[in-house]
Sequence to fold (229 residues):
Amino acid sequence: NAGVMQNPRHLVRRRGQEARLRCSPMKGHSHVYWYRQLPEEGLKFMVYLQKENIIDESGMPKERFSAEFPKEGPSILRIQQVVRGDSAAYFCASSQETSTDTQYFGPGTRLTVL
Amino acid sequence: AQKITQTQPGMFVQEKEAVTLDCTYDTSDPSYGLFWYKQPSSGEMIFLIYQGSYDQQNATEGRYSLNFQKARKSANLVISASQLGDSAMYFCAVRVTGGGNKLTFGTGTQLKVEL
Fold:
């Protein structure tokens, strides 16, 4: 009974490169959320997706960031042309339903931009 | 917009003692849920306990209980019989029913359990 899976766990990129972060939700979960945790801070919501749909992207930066959750395969958070300020831990969470279900988190991907 | 305030950046507790971690929230939505998560030094986020705004009784999960005072908009986490493995960062979060399901987190409290 696997939990939320994220890979890679650690990712190092140079400025200007692209970062792709993957998230596989818990079995039976169809809702995926991405959060970002900057050093010494709490988590900040980025985007909420269901299969093939972006439901709420109010926390996503307007440029360089995109997310998808295709019909088959994991959810992907993509950061183009990374900058040093993108260095953070990126967490994915999943839930079974919406309004009352708990979100369970993956182990996170620690992105370091050199 | 929702807001969570955790006023204790760091707390110390002796092993086997109880400790209370404070959390106050601000939302105008009448329907919401309150969550506590634990983040050990390894970095993962572990769900601990949930309280719904319409729940009549305080939530409990093993050694964790939530002291929910709706009128004061507070949702303090009580950990009984602290263990060394409880040393971690603890985050309080709120989700409003009409707010798209996103969690709004506080800044966290670093708990250290001492012998």
